[in-house]
Sequence to fold (1162 residues):
Amino acid sequence: MENGSASLETNVAGIQMKNPVMTASGTFGYGNEYSDFIDLNQLGATVVKGITSVPWPGNPMERIAETPSGMLNAIGLQNVGVDGFIEKKLPYLRDFDVPVIVNICGERREEYEEVTEKLNLTNGVAAVELNISCPNLHCGGMSFGVDPKLTYQLVKAVREKTALPLLVKLSPNVTDITVIATAAADAGADGLSVINTVLGMAIDVNTRQPMLQNVTGGLSGPAIKPIALRMVWQVYNAVKIPIVGMGGIMTSEDALEFFIAGASAVAVGTANFVNPRAPLDIIHGIRTYLDQNGVRSIADLVGSLQT
Amino acid sequence: MENGSASLETNVAGIQMKNPVMTASGTFGYGNEYSDFIDLNQLGATVVKGITSVPWPGNPMERIAETPSGMLNAIGLQNVGVDGFIEKKLPYLRDFDVPVIVNICGERREEYEEVTEKLNLTNGVAAVELNISCPNLHCGGMSFGVDPKLTYQLVKAVREKTALPLLVKLSPNVTDITVIATAAADAGADGLSVINTVLGMAIDVNTRQPMLQNVTGGLSGPAIKPIALRMVWQVYNAVKIPIVGMGGIMTSEDALEFFIAGASAVAVGTANFVNPRAPLDIIHGIRTYLDQNGVRSIADLVGSLQT
Amino acid sequence: MPTVTSERPKKFDLVTKILANEQAAQDHYLLRCECPEIAEGALPGQFIHVLISDASALLLRRPFTIYSVEGDQITILYQRVGAGTDTLSHLGRGDSLHVMGPLGNNFSIPPNLDSAIIVGGGAGIASLMLHAAALRKLGTRTLGLVGSINAARLLSVADLEAIEVETHISTDDGSIGHHGFVTEILTQILEQPQVYELHNPVTYACGPYGMLRAVAKISRKFRVPMQLAMENRMGCAMGVCLGCVCKVRTPDGGFEYQRVCTEGPVFDAEDIVW
Amino acid sequence: MPTVTSERPKKFDLVTKILANEQAAQDHYLLRCECPEIAEGALPGQFIHVLISDASALLLRRPFTIYSVEGDQITILYQRVGAGTDTLSHLGRGDSLHVMGPLGNNFSIPPNLDSAIIVGGGAGIASLMLHAAALRKLGTRTLGLVGSINAARLLSVADLEAIEVETHISTDDGSIGHHGFVTEILTQILEQPQVYELHNPVTYACGPYGMLRAVAKISRKFRVPMQLAMENRMGCAMGVCLGCVCKVRTPDGGFEYQRVCTEGPVFDAEDIVW
Ligand SMILES: Cc1cc2nc3c(=O)[nH]c(=O)nc-3n(C[C@H](O)[C@H](O)[C@H](O)COP(=O)(O)OP(=O)(O)OC[C@H]3O[C@@H](n4cnc5c(N)ncnc54)[C@H](O)[C@@H]3O)c2cc1C
Ligand SMILES: Cc1cc2nc3c(=O)[nH]c(=O)nc-3n(C[C@H](O)[C@H](O)[C@H](O)COP(=O)(O)OP(=O)(O)OC[C@H]3O[C@@H](n4cnc5c(N)ncnc54)[C@H](O)[C@@H]3O)c2cc1C
Ligand SMILES: Cc1cc2nc3c(=O)[nH]c(=O)nc-3n(C[C@H](O)[C@H](O)[C@H](O)COP(=O)(O)O)c2cc1C
Ligand SMILES: Cc1cc2nc3c(=O)[nH]c(=O)nc-3n(C[C@H](O)[C@H](O)[C@H](O)COP(=O)(O)O)c2cc1C
Ligand code: FES
Ligand code: FES
Fold:
């Protein structure tokens, strides 16, 4: 903590953090990639790329496309699998003083359970983030996150397997996100990550082919910020557990909007691709804002929207 | 039709048009506002601002806010009511050789029916666009459009009241737009307008107040184009009736993406605010593309996505 | 007092080149460009709608009042407040600009008006300059009350004095002129109009919402007619989006939302519901 | 053939100023800027990731290979193909640019290499120039096959000849050099390597996907080792988004998706699954 300045320390869903700024899953690798640019110890937490029970090859290319103030991705959860993660990726991260949150995904409930149990037995995992909202899987993924009953069952099953703090990552591709949020909270989630990407599409008019080989993909970046903020505010008014807000956060002003709407922490995603120092710039900007506005702790800002 | 060039003429849902480019409801007033800039006769059709049974005052200000590549609005359907429309607005439009599509909205089914019946008795209405997707009404509006049963009932009721071509305008704020699209088609809609605005929000971090007095509003503009395109493609694969595609169309390339995804016509909305000649520029660009690519009519392009 | 004229000049949508874009005070700039079509018809209080950059994350145009007209050229005076005006301030001679205008209604001058007070808060003075010139051309005695945060941001005093408007300066920090608000000067003047050689003056004002409300209250108290220019957030500026409305009293005792871009930006202060 | 070096220079994320940005051929530009940190370590085939404008609708950075290094300065050679490169082409001396690099792996030179052929299609030649210079520095006989749409878009011939690379030109319309594709010239050369004084040459290629596939097929047919630089669409360019992958054979006979930004951009042609 800097001398005389507001406290950014916070505990969200049982995750103790120096500050409320994380890096979002799938946008910051496994921590080592950005080591030339950023000191991991300065982050509030880091959420790693989605992990599954076995390694996944991912989707064929093209996997990404740019859209106005946004980008589409259909990576298809390429990852080394939970064993590969524990063996090859986690040791690097364990050397830092930063909570590691492991984003997990699967096609069936059993897979989620299996991955969770392996993480239980591992040192250096601060929390599990249950990805029930990946738009790029044909079965599993988002299909859980758009159905309150399936959400409840899955969260409950994983909850019973672990004492680790459990975040559930919600899909924005739903009619009423508060229904899903409530189901996840009722099933024992410690916190909610809001939001994953919005399902979108782009076409190359010259070839008349989709820009993504998978046809559709997940929209992220500033374009979705208004949608993400609205959902954070809706969820904040519907459930009592804390929210990690994300979706289009590029600057500290963006992050502050999320706190005011009701997020207890934020995650920075696509912004990392544009500015690898974005999370640090955002932490700095939040501190300045709190100081300038006489706000003593970040908690005082959470949900402070004047309506 | 220009000499030797592709035909842009089209009939969509029973609306005969010189070209497949409309102006979207709420973004082009009642035709006269842009008369210094644009010759109405060159448009494929014009859709007027949402009309209700009685005049509505609309929401208090602030009603709009800019977001990255987008804007939020919470106008609250300020309008002169159906009688005022017929008396004061329609006569101007009737003097042009352009189909006038009347966007109608209400809080209860009876209101939709009442407005429809009045339009039946009026000269100069080419079609009705049923707005079941306005995100800025507390009851009615979007609440119809997110429920397939309510959609079916409302569309059926209005269908029974009128022989005018009937478009139903869908909300993107749903888990599965094909379910609503199918309900509307089954109830007798002649075509579907896809999409209305996406529910969003923005906050002024200095005042900690929402940027819109209504707190949330509808997101439009390029930011939502990937979402709109994805929904057009989904609906195209789910129902047989034609689609009017819209959401973030600024250029002819944008419009072409919608045709390729499955739209039979497109509507230009927010772009009008930035460039009042946008609809004409888009018509011109479509013609050039068809000519250059040896496409003989716009129908040959509809749904031509190579997956 | 007659309401604003209804004869409006034709609107144009042009691409023009910037001739000059220079700092006028701290955070404030004067931008000049050639727009014969707009220059020809523009009335005092009318504005242009400017597309600051193509293909950019800034989707909407930005409205600015026409500050002055010289031959074929128009000038705007703008404050750098956000991303749009910041980008604008970095453009220079030769850069192109999409400009739509002239838009909106205009200030009006009652027949045989003897004297007038213009009250500009911050960049609000930009909306009043062309009108001040029109008043002075008719020989109307005109007082200019110019308020700003501090001396470094003070605007337009020389321009006003050049057309013989008697200026009264106030700053929030007292770094120049009266230490306090323009409203205090206005009260002082209206308490003793004869001292300032004012006979049945009309007040014209533009500035932040809070200032306008205060000025309207003062004018009302002294039964001085007042016209004000509103600066609401705008979408289309053409009357179609209904995004820019303000609450206006209707004859039946109710109210309606009127479009600042079309029914305004100039309103009779009496009609505004604050 | 040894695989690419694994010792990579440290990466930097800098804001620099453009020193020059001049047209090199129709739709192609050479942009020079001062980046001592990047210039110091850059290896042939490595690239920079460029943020073309802040606060803009163009969200992502754009990758460009380092074309040349002179002292503290680096130059890129880019083709105007879309919104990003169009915006870039309008920037000028003194404009600032965010640059990240040097990124990716690099071309490698087998010990005692006698001769080499570089094959550049369109702007693909940009990825090969620094490597051509490295080859020539070792005294390696180097042929440069340069393909373009037409004479007006022909790139880099003078730069290649200046370092004594023997250039062979082909254009799609025959407006200069061979009328046809670079692949035809390559076939002709590899059919009679002795005529061209080539002994166990290695091919290095960069260009459109279809060209690379064709060149790989020819090299394979003539059992000539080949390294190629891929130019997939990129997000992060730092190995985290997994957006830029290409399909690469694994020793077990299967395949995996490898990151062009991290495992590449240079791959052994044998490893690519087309
Ligand atoms: C009819 C009219 C005439 C005006 N004339 C002048 C003038 O002559 N000189 C001058 O300096 N300013 C004038 N303004 C205000 C000016 O339009 C805004 O300051 C400008 O649009 C802000 O753009 P921005 O991108 O820099 O700020 P943003 O980052 O968009 O916002 C910064 C602040 O400006 C406000 N604002 C944003 N967009 C608009 C908008 N479209 N309209 C109004 N306010 C907005 C926001 O609410 C916010 O408080 C006028 C406004 C209107 C409606
Ligand atoms: C490692 C690497 C090195 C490259 N080096 C050079 C070089 O030295 N000179 C050069 O002219 N070009 C080079 N390219 C290609 C260059 O990055 C693209 O042409 C550029 O990004 C297009 O941007 P745009 O906004 O103008 O085009 P867009 O409007 O974005 O797209 C136009 C076309 O460019 C392709 N494209 C768009 N974004 C990217 C991207 N991020 N990466 C690759 N292709 C893209 C699109 O698929 C489309 O076909 C390189 C690409 C890579 C991956
Ligand atoms: C390339 C990419 C890969 C992603 N991978 C994952 C993932 O594996 N698991 C997950 O839960 N979210 C994933 N996300 C979603 C982000 O974590 C985040 O929720 C989303 O991008 C919105 O935030 P942003 O707009 O700041 O990027 C991914 C996003 C991107 C852009
Ligand atoms: C200011 C504004 C007002 C609108 N009013 C209506 C309306 O009255 N009825 C309706 O069905 N849609 C309305 N819309 C939605 C548009 O018709 C269109 O569906 C949406 O804006 C997406 O298209 P765009 O991104 O091109 O603007 C409105 C949109 C805007 C921006
Ligand atoms: S700005 Fe659109 S109606 Fe005034
Ligand atoms: S561009 Fe992100 S992994 Fe290569």
Remarks:
- Chain C touches chain B through 32 residues (CB under 8 Å).
- The first helix of chain C runs from residue 36 to 41.
